[in-house]
Amino acid sequence: MQQETPKPHKRRVRYKGKYPKKFEEKYKELNPEKYQDTVEHVIRKGNTPAGMHISIMVKEILDFLKIQPGETGFDATLGYGGHTKAMMECLHGEGHMYATDVDPEESAKTKKRLEEQGFGEGILTIKLQNFCTIDEIAKEAGGFDFILADLGVSSMQIDNPKRGFSFRADGPLDLRLNQQKGISAAERLDQISREELAGMLYENSDEPYCEEIAKAITDEIRKGNRIDSTTKLRTVIENTLDFLPEKEKKDTIRKTCQRVFQALRIDVNQEFEVLYEFMEKLPDALKSGGRVAILTFHSGEDKLVKKALKAGYKAGIYSDYAKDVIRPSMQECAQNGRARSTKMRWAVKAE
Ligand SMILES: C[S@@+](CC[C@H](N)C(=O)[O-])C[C@H]1O[C@@H](n2cnc3c(N)ncnc32)[C@H](O)[C@@H]1O
């Protein structure tokens, strides 16, 4: 029998993994102009393309705001600029919009993108400022006919592991909307006492395991193990909840991670304090008959907004306000999972 000559061994090209390793290279959607079909495919599947944010309840907001050409408006939370653009389109080139955001990285990109789409400084003034400075901007603008605040974080911020907003990806435990200001969540944890941390988790996110998690985190830090990455925080939470029955463990850990990350984000960005200030200054920033719509994403925000609008209505500052929240349609929630927790509230300033 003739023996087959063995084929020379050919080394396989190293498999680099299904996805590129770096976030910048990760998705084609990051270059939406070049890969329009990829972006559309991702949206059709109910996901948010990387580097983009899908604006929520646009129709409901525009229906309520009833924007007319010549009016002056304020978008307190510019983000990707989707709402700002939709509102500017209602002006038909007459009038002006002001917009704020505290995120230098994303607001610079949005400014450039909107300019390229024809929304330059003639119609839009973007300020890298906290929305709690609404009084200063209203003074400059001469008051607003309409105002929108779409609270919280954008998809670009959540999806960028370097920002530390998501427990699903490894990154530094930062959680600041503006990484150039204040202290990161990791630095905050270095300094905080067990009692204060438990209180923060409870106050900001109604965390039922606040005591256990606060103890585990502060014990770990005392031992010299800093909690300075999203994975380290997630691991502490997983270990703390390891006693849970198997069938509920996975889901409870996921929800607890969401609440703990949210509580820290609220804390390092002083979200309740600035929202409170914004709601206090809001009536004076609106012209008479002016309209405001606010989107909230968790019960703490919603309670604060509801209380302020109700108090303003009772005091005769608002002629009407949303007694019930407006929720996104089931269709919108199916198309954009991030819309599911949204609640919209509104008010009209008395004439
Ligand atoms: C949900 S996103 C807004 C998305 C936007 N409406 C759109 O259509 O693309 C919230 C944005 O508000 C910004 N933000 C949060 N708190 C802020 C504050 N106190 N002052 C100014 N901007 C803030 C965040 O940095 C983020 O970009």
TrEMBL record:
<feature type="binding site">
    <location>
        <position position="157"/>
    </location>
    <ligand>
        <name>S-adenosyl-L-methionine</name>
    </ligand>
</feature>
<dbReference type="GO" id="GO:0032259">
    <property type="term" value="P:methylation"/>
</dbReference>
<feature type="binding site">
    <location>
        <position position="101"/>
    </location>
    <ligand>
        <name>S-adenosyl-L-methionine</name>
    </ligand>
</feature>
<keyword id="KW-0808">Transferase</keyword>
<comment type="similarity">
    <text>Belongs to the methyltransferase superfamily. RsmH family.</text>
</comment>
<keyword id="KW-0418">Kinase</keyword>
<dbReference type="GO" id="GO:0008168">
    <property type="term" value="F:methyltransferase activity"/>
</dbReference>
<dbReference type="GO" id="GO:0016301">
    <property type="term" value="F:kinase activity"/>
</dbReference>
<feature type="binding site">
    <location>
        <position position="150"/>
    </location>
    <ligand>
        <name>S-adenosyl-L-methionine</name>
    </ligand>
</feature>
<keyword id="KW-0949">S-adenosyl-L-methionine</keyword>
<feature type="binding site">
    <location>
        <begin position="81"/>
        <end position="83"/>
    </location>
    <ligand>
        <name>S-adenosyl-L-methionine</name>
    </ligand>
</feature>
<dbReference type="InterPro" id="IPR023397">
    <property type="entry name" value="SAM-dep_MeTrfase_MraW_recog"/>
</dbReference>
<protein>
    <recommendedName>
        <fullName>Ribosomal RNA small subunit methyltransferase H</fullName>
        <ecNumber>2.1.1.199</ecNumber>
    </recommendedName>
</protein>
<dbReference type="InterPro" id="IPR029063">
    <property type="entry name" value="SAM-dependent_MTases_sf"/>
</dbReference>
<feature type="binding site">
    <location>
        <position position="131"/>
    </location>
    <ligand>
        <name>S-adenosyl-L-methionine</name>
    </ligand>
</feature>
<keyword id="KW-0698">rRNA processing</keyword>
<dbReference type="InterPro" id="IPR002903">
    <property type="entry name" value="RsmH"/>
</dbReference>
<keyword id="KW-0963">Cytoplasm</keyword>
<comment type="function">
    <text>Specifically methylates the N4 position of cytidine in position 1402 (C1402) of 16S rRNA.</text>
</comment>
<keyword id="KW-0489">Methyltransferase</keyword>
<dbReference type="Pfam" id="PF01795">
    <property type="entry name" value="Methyltransf_5"/>
</dbReference>
